[in-house]
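quick one before i forget lol
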Amino acid sequence: MNQAQSLFIGIDLGTSGVRACAINSDEELLHTSSTSLPSPDIHQQSITQDARLWWQATQSVLNELLKNIDASQVWAISVNGTSGTVLACDQQGAPLAPARMYNDGFCTKQTKRISDIAPVTSAAHGTSSGLAKLLYLQESSPEAKHFLHQADWIVGQLTGKFNITDENNALKSGYDPINTCWPEWLNQLHIKLENLPKVVPPGTPVAAIQNGLFKELNLNPQCQVISGTTDSIAAFIATGASRPGDAVTSLGSTLVLKVISDTPISAPEYGIYSHRLGNYWLAGGASNTGGAVLKHYFTQQKMDQLTPLLSPEHPTGLNYYPLIQAGERFPTNDPTLPPKLKPKADSELQFFQAMLEGISNIEFAAYQKLHQLGAPYPSIIESAGGGSHNAAWIKMRQSILGVAVKQAKFSEACYGSALLAKRGFYN
């Protein structure tokens, strides 16, 4: 193997499409390919999708990607998927029913059963949990032999092994990351433990790719498939954050932030639980503020016009709490918390700046809350999402947060999975 020419592929199974990218041993991004997915089937609270569409899309992006790189030098592939998306399969891995998507809210009866039994610190609570859907699928497909998460099933398609998952995808299905096991209380729910996948850390070699897959594109037959993670964890890994105190803020539709900690942090009342990440833990939360609030009041064109006129060195002092409607979950857990957008700003520019300051203050309070719960206060913050491109806002946040804030060079989940493929191969 020529290490200098070695290549690694990451695959990201998203809500609207599948993306794949290739990197070299220097972690340079060489090529990216993507394709769209049909929208999930939605019937009131039920949101499902035919898993075979994922494999078709994965084959499509890999076919395109491998035509644009030296496929014979690809030594490892890793996959991420949406957290909490699960499906039931037969012994050979064939789906027995449509997959229940991460945002499916149909399994309310199962959610109630879980709430009566699961520890309050478990991430398996709520209708969006993988465990609620798994219970439903066990009841509706009693012949099932495997219950898998989205990324697990694609790993199975690549390797023929349909009995492996990773610690991050397993978390919402009830896995105990502290004691590294499927917990005893699952027996009280009559879960068929023998049908649950074996759990390994992200970045663990699973198996070589199945004989003949992508042979016509000269894919290296010794290419290893490496256990993956969830889409949000892969995006975190993509930024390069790797040590306690390293944090990532995603400035998307909502404000999502995570920080690496030496110890696990759990505060279900704030939606906080911790993913194991190597020898560390990844703790975080999500506020209802963010880009969706900005777009509620401003068009993108208007924000682009106002941004060069911002004065981060001259705060407005208006102390806004930008929300579209009442209700906040983190850093304050208050379903009745109203938006605070008064006193009225003197101008549209001042209103825009005060909104950005308000979101920055919420970010500061959120990291403080995590710190109070036992996580380190950030030593550096990488920024991802649409808002990370705003240099004036970064300067504003840096002043409020009191630490270095910078735009992440990479934040795509497929890039994070490619890094995981490389690390898993060499480790």
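fyi DSSP finds eleven helices and 19 strands in the chain.
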